[in-house]
Amino acid sequence: MAIIGANSKIGTLLAERMAPMYDLLLMDSSSDELMALINSIRLQQPATNINILAFCWEASWEADVIVVAAAMEQLPAIAEKIKEVTNRKPVIHFSPAGSATTTLQQLLPHANVVVAELETDASTDGLQKVVRLGGVDKEALKLAGEILAHSFAIAL
């Protein structure tokens, strides 16, 4: 699993929760923060297989599942870099509930994009939860649901 934007709040949470189940390829602009994240995860789970990759193209090429944990305004630049290696791969993107959900699918027309819409839950001190998954490919939606069930409260 590649996590592009691994230093984001969501990217960090996913890395921590997915480390026991997946080999992780982490990518973000600050390698120092990524190294701190990896060290933190390895303290809790020493047997995990986590690597830092410098380029999102390389991370996307090597991964079976791609998570884009980056802001909406970064999507065009990320999509341009990874579009040639996302053909038929599940690409999961997080966005605020109610925002445009088709943006990444339009930018990556040959990928199986799943958008996980997030909402802040006031009852849990501002933690975010996934309130809806959107996408066309049923297998990608099922996979995203399974992955996110380990990381977030999902209200579908």
Spell out the key features of this protein:
7 strands; 156 residues; single chain; Rossmann fold; alpha/beta; 6 helices; 7-stranded mixed sheet
- Count of DSSP strands: 7
- Please report the distance between the alpha carbons of the first and last residues: 24 Å
Order of helices and strands: EHEHEHEHEHEEH
Helix content: 25-40%
- Give the full name of the CATH homologous superfamily: NAD(P)-binding Rossmann-like Domain
The poorly predicted ranges are none
Describe this structure in words.
- By secondary structure, this protein is α/β, with parallel strands linked by helices.
- It has one domain: Rossmann fold (3-Layer(aba) Sandwich), CATH 3.40.50.720.
- It has a 7-stranded mixed beta sheet with strand order 3-2-1-4-5-6-7, with helices on both faces.
- It is globular, with a radius of gyration of 14 Å.
- The mean pLDDT is 86.
Q: Layout of SSEs?
A:
Elements: E1 2-4, H1 9-18, E2 24-27, H2 31-44, E3 50-52, H3 56-62, E4 66-68, H4 75-82, E5 90-96, H5 103-107, E6 112-121, E7 127-135, H6 138-149
Parallel strand pairs: 1-2, 1-4, 2-3, 4-5, 5-6
Antiparallel strand pairs: 6-7
Q: In a nutshell, what does this entry contain?
A:
This protein is an alpha/beta fold and 156 residues long. The protein is built from 6 helices and 7 strands; from the N terminus they run βαβαβαβαβαββα. The radius of gyration is 14 Å and the shape is globular.
